[in-house]
From TrEMBL:
Molecular function as annotated in GO: ABC-type transporter activity
UniProt main location, coarse: membrane
Topology versus the membrane: Multi-pass membrane protein
Protein name: DUF3533 domain-containing protein
Keywords associated with the record: Membrane, Transmembrane, Transmembrane helix
GO cellular component entries: membrane
Organism: Paenibacillus dendrobii
């Protein structure tokens, strides 16, 4: 028992226990808060209705706009809506073609309604929109009940016999024509690939940044103040350029199907991500010393949600949404979606990643500039007292 108490009083063991407790609290609080948005915030997603039919389509479009629990857009032409779908600003397009009423009133012909979905999205968005399409098709078929439909057709001065025949076909009259853009290869491992590739670099950067700051502080007296800093930055750049090749090569070798151009683009994106993440987490290593792990781990857990890999940005709770605008993981994941699977806003997200990385480096430089002289003064004071 005495030996056990000796271990429990050891600083390393106390630190380990603190980390075990902290990780549980941080992980559960962050994930319970973040993932509470599903399905609570699904009404924040945007669905567009493009109606080109001025007869039956008008009433159907109005009914859908009123019934669907999403942000509805009804004033966009199809080409503009498709642009926003490609940019992931719209989750689903419901297109009612110009000849919808004609198809609906023609015996033996199914009336097609087009549903456009961008598969280059978080899996939750794609699966949710697929469920919405199924529900819309079923509900519309049910709403066009035999008796009411027969009355509608007769009011159009259609012969009673033809109206009755068409009404009997109504339960299966609608045909959902699903158009998937930017298809993702089958398998959850492919849908989550942007997140996995981003996460491994970020976790590696967290560990490396602590070691690099320790080495930089140890060598700055020998090398000189700024020589140590800029040599560390050069080392960070070299490591960032080479290290991502391992994980990315494993993914591309296992998955296959992608060309050399895609490989190089993904590699360079994650090289930039790794460099930016090292700089970002070095800030806390400089300011908080050995307590930096608490800040870096917390911010990493927050970014697993604010990265946009599991839910779209508009669905995120307010804290995670704010973090996403300055998150290295968010810009990397979104860039990966566009490069690997397709989609818009590639320049915008790439620019965001550059800005976040450069800003992190500047703040890291300032932290080093203001913290290091203070450390040197404290060391001199200790030596003088000794």
């Amino acid at each position: 028992m005495k030996n056990i108490l000796t271990f429990l009083k050891n600083k390393s063991v106390i630190g380990g226990i603190t980390m075990v407790l902290f990780y549980q609290v941080a992980f559960i609080l962050i994930f319970m808060t973040g993932y509470s948005a599903i399905p609570k915030n699904m009404n924040e997603m945007t669905v567009a209705i493009v109606n080109e039919d001025k007869q039956a389509g008008t009433d159907i479009a109005a009914g859908l706009a009123k019934q669907l629990p999403f942000k509805m857009v009804t004033d966009l032409p199809l080409d503009k809506a498709q642009e926003q779908l490609n940019d992931r600003d719209i989750a689903l397009i419901i297109h009612i073609p110009q000849d919808f009423t004609k198809q609906l009133s023609t015996s033996g012909t199914k009336a097609k309604m087009d549903f456009f979905m961008n598969q280059s999205n978080p899996a939750m968005v794609s699966s949710s929109m697929q469920s919405v399409v199924t529900q819309i098709t079923t509900n519309l078929n049910n709403q066009l009940a035999t008796q009411s439909a027969q009355g509608v057709f007769q009011s159009m001065k259609m012969p009673a016999e033809q109206a009755q025949k068409l009404a009997a076909e109504i339960p299966t009259k609608l045909d959902a024509n699903i158009v998937n853009t930017n298809p993702v290869p089958a398998g959850m491992h492919n849908q989550m690939a942007p997140f996995f590739l981003t996460m491994v670099s970020y976790v590696g950067a967290m560990i490396f940044s602590m070691m690099m700051v320790g080495a930089m502080n140890a060598l700055k007296r020998k090398m000189g103040f700024w020589q140590a800093f800029w040599s560390a930055q050069a080392t960070n750049a070299i490591v960032s350029l080479i290290a991502p090749l391992i994980g990315i090569s494993i993914y591309f070798l296992i998955q296959g199907g992608y060309g050399a151009e895609t490989f190089v683009k993904v590699w360079l994106v994650h090289a930039l991500e790794l460099f930016g993440a090292i700089e970002f987490m070095s800030i806390f290593s400089l300011l908080l010393k050995d307590k930096a792990i608490f800040a870096n781990l917390t911010l990493m857990l927050i970014q697993t949600i604010s990265s946009g890999a599991t839910m779209s940005q508009e669905m995120m709770p307010w804290l995670f949404k704010i973090v996403s605008y300055i998150s290295i993981m968010f810009y990397t994941v979104q860039t990966d979606f566009s490069i690997i699977f397709g989609g818009g806003k590639l320049p915008e997200h790439l620019l965001g990643l550059w800005i976040a990385s450069i800003a992190s480096m500047i703040i890291c430089l300032l932290a080093f500039y203001f913290v290091s002289p203070k450390e040197a003064a404290d060391d001199q004071e200790k030596h003088a007292v000794a």
